[in-house]
């Protein structure tokens, strides 16, 4: 018998037995001290003081005691159901809904409160809360049986309430439909279930059987055990809520804990490490397009735990979280990744043994736009103007940089080109063209940026504007030099790069020193 079965049986047994020998439902305890104390605890949930938290374990214990020993009150049963979810997640919810179903099916006339209006209010308290937790970010792939039973309970509860309350019955249909959608999505993406409970039990046995760490061997063994149990724990958390910040934080903390330096590589930056198979990555992309984000996050987090240098996975998890509108979880992925990249500079440029990059172009753009700004100020990326009044090209460029990852490079260039075509002077045309070059550089399209920057550089030299537009002259030179550092060198580019280096030594020696 599973923990979920035991939980459901326990609470069903409580409501099956009468409160006393002479009365199944006991007494109305609405004005009792116990009921008022329980109501006071629950009122903390609506408190304006954010530091006040509901003690759901206490609510569970007190509600259970009232239902067992004093009164079969529908309000208390609803409170207990929600407390069970808070303490036991979906196994607890299954037990609570099963209990409510039994009470309404078999003892409706005997329940408290007596008035239908008050009973409807009790159900109206819990149903909106249930709608908020039964959402697409819940992964049910490994607990399908539980959700099938939950769906059956809601269907039966809906029928019995409509039978007793008619048109006044609270609306359960949206919850039923959502459960059906979740179960259908799980059946379409069915795969071999994982025995998480067995993994946790085995690892926990190993963890607690080892009393001390006395040498390097013990330390490595203890770390491996911690990593195993962490992986199982994170999977469990993500199964309950795919946007759980704790799981995302813990997985990354343990993942990169022992990495202190970039892996060895050859001159082409190719390492001996193996990444994910092409088929696995293709499957993830297909599932993302289908919108199965919750299950996808669970599986991708497992792949990330086994392949710490698969940086595309970090971006794909972030995009899945974005699709679920999980802002806090997105920030957690960004910050953890930023701290790792700051600690191991240059690691994103490396490649797996087959030449596949640790981070493809899309991931590199995502890192620049969303990840690294957490640890490196993006002053060089956003156009600045010392006068305080930014010109139009700087304002539009900054907007395009912020939207680059979401809308793509083509959209950004189209917008900048629209402004370029309506420029009223050669100076305006120059700076709109410069903005296009900058957005190309930002998007890691270095060859495109190089072509644009070389044309602008020639324009500046031809007209002798390095004295009249010194900031633009230096910025063009810096970005052009950066492009030559990024693209594969040939004889011509080496000569150009040397010329740019000498120019920077003359006009911006401090920047050259910072590079060396």
UniProtKB/TrEMBL annotation:
NCBIfam families: VI_chp_7. The lineage of its organism: Bacteria, Pseudomonadati, Pseudomonadota, Gammaproteobacteria, Pseudomonadales. PANTHER family: IMPA N-TERMINAL DOMAIN-CONTAINING PROTEIN (PTHR37024:SF5), TYPE VI SECRETION SYSTEM DUF2094 AND IMPA-RELATED DOMAIN PROTEIN (PTHR37024). This is Type VI secretion system protein TssA. It comes from the Bacteria. Residues 18-126 form the ImpA N-terminal domain. It comes from Pseudomonas viridiflava (Phytomonas viridiflava). Pfam families: ImpA_N (PF06812), T6SS_VasJ (PF16989).
